[in-house]
Design goal:
The complex is a heterotrimer of chains A (490), B (252) and C (173).
Chain A: E1 5-6, H1 24-34, H2 43-55, H3 59-86, H4 101-125, H5 135-155, H6 182-215, H7 218-227, H8 235-268, H9 280-306, H10 310-313, H11 316-347, H12 350-361, H13 365-382, H14 386-389, H15 392-418, H16 436-457, H17 463-472, E2 473-478, E3 481-487
Antiparallel strand pairs in A: 1-3, 2-3
Helix pairs in contact in A: 3-16, 4-5, 4-8, 4-9, 4-15, 5-6, 5-16, 6-7, 6-8, 8-9, 9-11, 9-15, 11-13, 12-13, 13-15
Chain B: E1 22-27, H1 36-44, H2 52-56, E2 65-68, E3 82-85, H3 94-98, E4 104-106, E5 113-115, H4 125-129, E6 136-137, E7 164-165, H5 171-183, H6 196-200, E8 206-210, H7 217-221, E9 227-228, E10 240-243
Chain C: E1 4-11, H1 14-27, E2 34-38, H2 56-81, H3 93-120, E3 128-129, E4 139-146, H4 150-160, E5 164-167, E6 170-171
Antiparallel strand pairs in C: 1-4, 1-5, 2-4, 3-6
Helix pairs in contact in C: 1-4, 2-3
Classes of the chains: A mainly alpha (490), B alpha+beta (252), C alpha+beta (173).
Chain lengths: 490, 252, 173
């Protein structure tokens, strides 16, 4: 046998804590039902399932897509176009709150985009097997979320038609950009992350595009034929692909950390009470992971319950694992939030004191409390329970609430904190949301619409990775107990 | 490579002698809070009038504001100093480093902070980083219905929406006076250049001049024992000196 | 004069495929004349073959170095060429490090991506030897052999348990 098996009990099989009171055959069947990796089907069948899931649509799908398209056209592009022609006075910004909802939403979408890299890169590096069926679904979230973040950042600019002035390209005006500015680091970091993520999405997609090419006809076949680049699956091609994926997985992790850290530095390097905090870097990164993983939970549940055959690929074990991740990350977020809060509360100057009081007791105080309840209280109260984690309705709701809480966190950090500064004559109290609201709703619709269209077009489950995992998993008897063993096939 | 002007490595190294050329001294004990400076500045610099509603929402666009402060509780109010605040033209300006397109740079000749309207793309980072909240943004193109448009100053650009603006120490007047002096082959005399706010002030509370000329009024005032700077501990090295503390009960 | 033929032997499972590779070696077909095509990645060691060399790592490292140079040039070189003093201080080390890091990662990852394309000769739209069953999880051995060995190889593969053995046709994918 050329396969070397390592007899490590798999992390997910808590089942062997139960006494083997029922017959071992039952126990094995339970394991197979629970774990996708232990329930292999012929590759041809899995391919057919994924292709079927991709090509089958119903009128309900197109109805929803149509409604979303209308929302995008009106609320996003319509409202944004109107604002470009009229001026930023349509937004809710004022002095001293020069930044408000646009920046909140930018950070929100960049945060969600970190989901993809976390699932496909971090989990790949640590060889976590449960990531296999939904890495591509998570990576797609990254690309589409970054597109929305880009829309929001362009929307916040006063003269967006001159946005190309921020590009470091030699020009006849002999003007250059300021690399000391965190906005330029933002520009470089977000572009790096977008390009790297898209490449990291595309590379493992190539073998699945080849599979789709082999199994389709008509216009789909010609498109997949071009996109699959003539991939056959030779030893050489797999070797190059595998090495590149390893390099990408390791390298995109520091990029992911750096992106949200740099976004946090937009705030942290400024001389504002409440902003000038050294913990913003890791605080924002963990915040991004929190909203990202919560969004992954929502997307995975949506895929499983709306698309054909996805109940084979995405099982309760995945919801369980994502739920546990959400709980751990929520604890991490609470740690960093408390860190930030404690330092400001204990030793802050009078303006920081005033700011903290304004957070809790000002007109936005209910948002501050909502943030703590949805980011900390609810995950901690709900996600420890295995049955609740595995319940899709509960997990979806918790994920949604976490995202609302993370939105609230950014709201507290940007428009609310800006109202307090070192010149009390110019403290603001009033903030009315303006045209940012329809634009945000439009970006949410755009995100979902892009996702829906992508699900028709590319296979959402990386079947070759699933089969690779299934090849590595087996059940063997350890004493009287059937246990899961995972081989290290690389 | 262009030759670099002498600049310090760290902010703390900035020598005290390099006060720059132009500065303002504001005597808060003389200021009556009449806001003539605000009106004059708006006239001189083509600042649009945003209307009552927008002004109440924090969209007012005056480059100088008169802050009302008071000490004590009503009716035992001990003092009501008025504090006119405009751009402090910091030597180490936090707004300059954060602009991604170099729309706000430091003038080497006048040693003040410049706002380049045609370069600004409107990210508003500079405004967030200004600790004095001295900058304003053109949220909209405000109308100037006839005959208000006849009042525009031809020496000053009219800004469109989407760009930041702020007090410039009436740099157009500085240039005019410097050009006149150069044509006559002399230096600018102390008191020859008056920004609009200094010119309009009925109490002569705003004094403008050359900080590097030890004989000028502003230079002497900035060394007065009542002299202080706003938010001094931030290290921004502002060019505006405030004289305060001389009201009754506090002299001594 | 023997003519070179291309045979395609398709296996369902990895064990017969590994036996087949050994058998081919016995029959005199060297490893370089056998190409393994599969629907899931299998390492060369699983079939008893020598590991493939790849240039992707070299692309990555070269790209990282190039990116580092680009980053230094952008963050430190350009301000020194055309200095504009802002904020009362000169360009410092921390912003330079940030820009250097981002450009290093960007160019390294782009080079890795391009390296995959160049090494695998993507995109390849010319007709090649391939059958769609491979993406259904089969393991195929593309054997280049002399004409006289063809029959021997065919019967050997069938004996080991190949699903099919046939002449490889170059067809457009």
């Amino acid at each position: 046998m050329a396969i070397s098996a390592s007899a490590l009990p798999h992390a997910q099989s808590e089942e062997h804590a139960h006494p083997a009171s029922h017959g071992t055959g039952d126990h094995e069947a339970e394991l197979r039902k629970e774990h996708l990796m232990l329930d292999p089907r012929p590759r041809g069948e899995m391919n057919a399932m994924v292709m079927d899931s991709m090509t089958t649509t119903s009128w309900k799908f197109w109805l929803v897509a149509g409604i979303l398209a209308v929302i995008v056209a009106v609320a996003l592009f319509g409202a944004w176009g109107y604002m470009i022609s009229e001026g930023l006075y349509l937004s809710g910004k004022n002095r001293p709150g020069y930044w408000s909802l646009f920046l909140v939403h930018t950070v929100f979408w960049v945060g969600i985009s970190h989901a993809g890299t976390f699932v496909s890169a971090l989990l790949r590096v640590f060889k976590v097997e449960f990531r296999r069926p939904f890495t591509r679904a998570a990576e797609l979230m990254t690309t589409f979320a970054l597109a929305q973040a880009g829309i929001q950042i362009f929307a916040h600019m006063g003269r967006v038609w001159l946005a190309y002035w921020m590009f470091p390209i030699p020009n006849q005006r002999q003007l250059w950009v300021n690399f000391q500015s965190p906005l330029m680091w933002d520009f470089l970091a977000i572009n790096t992350y977008l390009l790297s993520s898209t490449m990291y999405l595309f590379l493992p997609l190539i073998p699945d595009l080849a599979m789709a090419r082999d199994r389709s006809t008509g216009w789909r076949k010609s498109v997949y034929r071009i996109l699959a680049l003539g991939f056959r699956g030779t030893e050489a091609e797999w070797t190059h692909l595998r090495i590149a994926l390893n390099i990408f997985a390791f390298a995109i992790l520091p990029v992911m950390f750096s992106v949200h850290t740099i976004v946090s530095w937009d705030f942290a390097v400024a001389m504002r009470p409440g902003w000038s905090s050294t913990i913003f870097g890791p605080y924002f990164v963990i915040g991004a992971l929190q909203s990202g993983v919560a969004a992954v939970a929502m997307v995975v549940i949506a895929i499983r319950y709306t698309m054909k055959h996805m109940d084979y690929f995405i099982r309760k074990e995945h919801l369980d694992a994502i739920g546990k991740l959400m709980l751990v990350i929520s604890m991490g977020w609470a740690y960093f939030f408390f860190n930030d809060y404690m330092i400001q509360w204990y030793g802050g100057d009078k303006f920081t004191d005033a700011l903290l009081h304004f957070h809790e007791a000002g007109p936005g105080g209910w948002i501050w409390f909502m943030m703590l309840i949805t980011n900390v209280a609810i995950p901690w109260l709900v996600l420890w329970n295995k049955a609740w984690r595995r319940n899709p309705a509960i997990l979806f709701s918790v994920g949604l609430l976490i995202n609302v809480g993370m939105w609230a966190e950014r709201y507290i950090i940007v428009p609310v904190s800006l109202q307090i500064n070192r010149m009390p004559f110019l403290w603001g109290q009033d903030f009315k949301p303006g045209i940012e609201v329809p634009i945000f709703i439009g970006t949410i619709a755009f995100f979902v619409l892009l996702y829906m269209l992508a699900s028709r077009f590319i296979p959402l489950v990386p079947v070759w990775e699933v089969q690779e995992g299934q090849m590595a998993h087996s059940i063997r008897k350890y004493g009287k107990e059937p246990v899961v063993t995972v081989a290290e096939l690389e | 490579m262009a030759s670099l002007p002498k600049i310090p490595e760290y902010k703390a190294e900035w020598a005290e002698g390099e006060e720059g050329r132009w500065g303002i001294a504001i005597d808060m004990d003389l200021c009556t809070g009449c806001q003539a400076c605000v009106a004059a500045c708006s006239m001189e610099n083509n600042i649009p009038f945003v209307g009552e509603e927008d002004a109440a929402y924090g969209r007012q666009m005056s480059w100088i504001r008169v802050e009302r402060l008071w000490e004590g509780e009503y009716p035992e109010v001990k003092a009501t100093p008025f504090q006119p605040v405009m751009c402090q033209q910091c030597g180490s300006a936090p707004c300059e480093s954060v602009c991604p397109v170099f729309a706000t740079v430091h003038s080497q000749a006048e040693q003040i902070n410049l706002q380049v309207y045609n370069r600004c793309v409107g990210t508003r980072y500079c405004a967030n980083n200004c600790p004095y909240v001295a900058r304003v943004f053109n949220w909209a193109d405000y109308e100037r219905p006839e005959p208000l448009s006849n009042q525009l100053n031809p020496d000053v650009t009219v800004r469109r929406r989407g760009v930041m603006e702020k007090c410039t120490f009436c740099i157009q007047r500085i240039h005019k006076a410097s050009d006149q002096a150069k044509a006559e082959g002399r230096e600018v005399r102390d008191g020859e250049v008056q920004p609009a706010c200094a010119q309009a002030c009925p109490a002569d509370a705003i004094v403008f001049g050359r900080l590097d000329d030890p004989e000028s009024r502003v230079s002497k005032l900035s060394k007065d024992k009542r002299a202080t700077h706003l938010l001094e501990d931030l290290g921004t090295q502002p060019r505006v000196t405030y004289l305060k503390g001389g009201y009754h009960g506090n002299l001594g | 004069m023997t003519e070179k033929n291309l045979l395609l032997a398709i296996f369902e499972d990895i064990d017969p495929a590994a036996h087949a590779v050994d058998k081919l070696r016995e029959l005199g077909v060297t490893d370089t004349h056998v190409t393994v095509i599969s629907g899931t990645p299998i390492t060369e060691a699983m079939l008893g073959r020598k590991p493939q060399w790849s240039n992707v790592t070299r692309f990555a490292l070269g790209g990282a170095f190039l990116g580092l140079c680009v980053g230094i040039f952008l963050a430190y070189g350009t301000p020194n060429l055309y200095p504009i003093i802002v904020g009362g201080r000169w360009i410092g080390v921390p912003p330079t490090i940030v820009v250097m890091f981002e450009m290093t990662m960007l160019v390294m990852l782009i080079s890795t991506f391009i390296g995959v394309f160049l090494d695998s000769r993507f995109p390849n739209y010319t007709p090649t030897q391939y059958v769609p069953e491979i993406s259904d999880g089969r393991i195929a051995l593309l054997i280049e052999c002399g004409g006289e060995l063809e029959i021997a190889i065919e019967s050997a593969m069938k004996a080991i348990g190949a699903e099919s053995v046939k002449r490889a046709q170059a067809e457009a994918l």
